[in-house]
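May I ask for whichever protein you like with its backbone structure tokens?
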Amino acid sequence: MTLYHQPVMAKECIEGLAIREEGTYVDVTFGGGGHSRLILQHLGDKGHLLGFDQDEDAVGNVLEDSRFTFVAANFKYLKRFLKLHGISKVDGILADLGVSSHQFDEGSRGFSYRFDHQLDMRMNVKDEVTAAKVVNEYSADYLQQMFSQYGEVRNAKSLALRIVEQRSIRKIETIGDLLAVIEPLIRGQRHRYLAQVFQAIRIEVNEEITALHELLEQSLDVLKDGGRLVVISYHSIEDRIVKNFFKTGNIEGRVEKDFYGNITRPFKLITRKAVVPKEEEIIENSRARSAKLRIAEKI
């Protein structure tokens, strides 16, 4: 059996949560349950952990533990489901953003350009928008903005125009179809370019940035004073959002002041700079290479 997902910076995450034995915690990206298992090891009989995941495949990893509750939903519904389970405040929230190893390695999910399957990329297979819908139906202007903003693709305009041109000749249905369209426009390292393009499409399909915004904003309402928010991101877009929010309490990074001109901050930064994986971990798990960990405590 292959590992569903190897938890990144596990030791640093657990230490960052500063787990209290009787506390209530949330792993909003349950996946293979790697981080959740470690959290449970630090909880006492009265402690509780909720694990969120919208991917149906994650259900097979649910932990048989009376202190654990699995929530089959996107973490953007955090507050709603906590209320449903009679929980108003929690002691800590952990988010390991991005795509799991399982999702990347399961070719039929369409997350990786290594496999030729249908263009899908949905984390929740019940959602209507697929990668095929994005590349075949979205306007050139929207595609350009998407590739530029979510993938930081340098020739985003040329790529968007080529996709629109080619799809008018033949529908782009598979990963192979998309690669054939992209190949002539690849600039620089092929792996990096394709990773940027696929990242942009995946973020759009799953509305990842919107979901992150909602998670962060809801965290202020559900965290107890002294509660910890631990976030691992894998690209500069997410990391910038998390950094801004931790420093100012808003997505834009807008500094706010009270009546007397004092800067108001809802968090105390536990990590002044992003923590990155040690070289040994990167050697063991190459997907940890781009990870950045930030930890904040609600004041």
